[in-house]
Amino acid sequence: MRRKRVLPPALLILCTTALAGTAPAVASPVAAPAPAPGRAAPLRILLTNDDGYQAPGIRKAFDRLTAAGYDVTIVAPLTNQSGTGTKVTSAAAIAVRHPEPKVWAVDGTPGDSVAFGLSEVFDGHAPDLVVSGTNFGPNLAALATHSGTVGGAVAALESGVPAIALSTGGVTVPDPVTTVNAMDPTLDFAVKLIERLRSRARSGPLLPEGVGLNVNHPVVGSDGKGTAAGVSATFQDPQQVLATDFTDSGDGTGTWKVDVKVDLRPAARGGDIEAVAAGRISVSPMNADWNTAALDRVRAAALIAGLRP
Question: Are strands 280-287 and 71-77 parallel, antiparallel or unpaired?
Fold first, then answer.
């Protein structure tokens, strides 16, 4: 079963084409300013990813979100954990480094990082938001199901903390230069989205309980620095995107060669692939469980009617 996608009406309110513009990116870290008298304290953000705490996406995110006035703390994997999905470590111990102020590196998955951050770094006083990314490459369709970026956001939702998974990439194999360039407009949009959530929430939670957002920003222009054509409230396209082929090496060792290729099918109307392929930012609501709609439970009940152990 797939995670159900909920609240499209709410996202249509949140994600209008007015959000599609971008502002200049800021390249270097800026300390979060102290709130002026009578003003609210800065939004507290736990920033994680699956590419590792030193990856360009998370470092750009730290700089941009901090420059926007948020109190940002990185709690991310020590090494690249792409494709780990919602995996969490079952070991009796885990190594954690604190290489610089506001940065924690966890020798585990994004889920481990978020769990450690919520329990220890934030010491029981949960952040206002968990942002996971921005990821190098897209997390669309079935890629989202296996994504460590999305897994980090799911770990936050499981603990009752609002979360956004943020990815940068088109529907083809990512190009290093243009994808990194496109991270700047991705993060400019992220700031606008967070501010929209904050203004709508007033003094309450940024998102409804248990609901997160999976945001995919396309690579626009030959240099990746272009502005997206707009913003679409979407759902997770059901297709796989990648096709895996196994070939017996024939050497008698039981070794099989693995070949993975992009295998795009016609995009589902209203889905994330359709939006990104059109140069639009895709924003898909998600939750942290695997429940489907109520109608599916009715169908399941009919299916098992009369069955006995």
Answer: unpaired
